Amino acid sequence: MKYVLLIVFLIAESLSAQTIFFKESFDDPDFLQRGWYDNATGIPTTMTEHHGASGMAAEFMYPKGGTKAKGGVRRQFAESNSVYLSYWVKYSANFVGSGKPYHPHEFHFTTNLNEKYVGPSWTKMTLYVEQNDGHPILSFQDSQNIDTSNIKNDISSSTEFRSCGGCNGSSDAFPAGDCYKSGANWFNGKTWKATIKAFADTGMYNKNEWHHVEAYFKLNSISNGKGIADGTAQYWFDGELLIDAQNVMFRTAANPTMMFNQFLMLPYIGDGSPVDQTMWVDDLMVGDSRPTPSGVEETVLGHINIYPNPVDEFLTVELGGTEVIGDVFFIDILGNEVAKTLVSIQKNGFIISIKVIPRGVYILKFQTPLGVYMKKIHITH
Question: What is the biggest distance separating any 2 CA atoms in the chain, rounded to whole angstroms?
């Protein structure tokens, strides 16, 4: 047999089993009509910075010494045991965040156990998606669940009436997290921090370029009157999985009806911004799951060679005696066709310039007499 077909892994050419709660492109000012509230008419936008060929982006500017970026806003959605956040983000070249090992807070989810205007820092549950000193961070707190008579005592094996994010011990394999008092209330927090500095000053992780961020959280289950440590917290940067926390305990059996139902963009630096700095956000989406494989298989046909991968400028395809029928396509991780090119040399091989394709992970796809060829390509420019 001249050519061998190898099934490598499943990819997402289209979306399946995903509920999309809402999308926001920030391209027009009708935010209130689309369900945003708590300052919905005050979201600042700009045409100067945006992801894609046209449109606008949300512009969150921290003034020096200020704790809040203008334009914080909220939106409710259908109750769900899991949430998926997808957005594009770019930071000003001088962006330094808080300059301390905590903050800025950027994106949050809260639950149906709190009212729609709840302050996110002291709740039954708040999720955080943010970055500190360029390192992506996922965290959660459930401070209102703390048993204040057992501060810093591990009571996880004796009662369901306790917190999971710290103060009452760890309910899973991860450290218990923070536990501290501020004013009249006790606060906690469990955090996962990426080892990679994904928002850096130069190179492939340049914070002053647009990057795609995805985060996914799934609540743990409850069985026989006890919480089971089987929750999930994950973070992707340009398609690269940087945080993968499995077997997490987010809730106990004391809160069996807890579900996520509110998304918040409330950029905040508690100690004040050390400089004037800006974050831009575009093409945001909230759903219940990450796009999942739909049964389309990535295939590698014998004798076809593609290099380099990762690629910065030009991609070389050696066809090994077969040929291309029609166009060559690039498909992004959400299943969208982002580029296509008609190759001029259809035997032996060809070279593709990928300079116009944004940095990220794609599927290269084209037709040959032997079948459809599909391969994962990482573009790094």
Answer: 75
